[in-house]
């Protein structure tokens, strides 16, 4: 029992060690865009590949500060967006707004008017692949700030609480992986408790751990999810494989994660998150 206790304490000490090196983005931001006639907010662009006689397409990286959006536009040759960071919106003319996340792939159909941009609480980045043979982007007008501000209440959100909790939980893993502290700060209840193997943390301690890189939640592979609603409380159980960097070492472990959400006037907030390591791989 003494050995087990000592190992548990040692594990928690390792979890608490700070990693000074920050995880760099896949690609550099590039230069800040200055042609604000075509967007609202702050956007950085990095042209990776320019079309030539051998490769007839352009590849460009774009990084959006939260709440920054591109105007309505269309691509004569279409475009493919590979989402590399954060959460964003994508909408085609006459269709509902979609929420997109890191790892998603968006196909912008040739000649279809659309817009895309960052959500209100998240930075956003993607790599755009654009055929060049059919011409440049055609711009068609601003996305009104009024329409953008109403997105959180529009039809792209789930219709029931179970779907909303699952969406929040999934989005939370993206925010933790990308260290989106402001978004997590808004989600975590002021009295939230976080239970790791060997110890517990307060809301502020958990945010600090994520911010400093003491624990880097790199990827959560969600395998099973169930939600139980009890009044204004939702209990989510998920079976995951978590890829993380702990004490400078990359590790993958199977967990059952328990998340408790509380519904208040401003929506759902996370009241508790607990990790239970599975004995089997």
From TrEMBL:
InterPro entries: Cupin_2, DUF4440, HNL-like_cupin, NTF2-like_dom_sf, RmlC-like_jellyroll, RmlC_Cupin_sf. The keyword Acyltransferase does not apply. The keyword Metal-binding does not apply. Residues 1-21 form the signal peptide. Keywords: Signal. SUPFAM superfamilies: NTF2-like, RmlC-like cupins. Residues 71-129 form the Cupin type-2 domain. This is DUF4440 domain-containing protein. Residues 165-269 form the DUF4440 domain. It comes from Chitinophaga nivalis. CDD domains: cupin_HNL-like. Gene3D superfamilies: 3.10.450.50, Jelly Rolls.
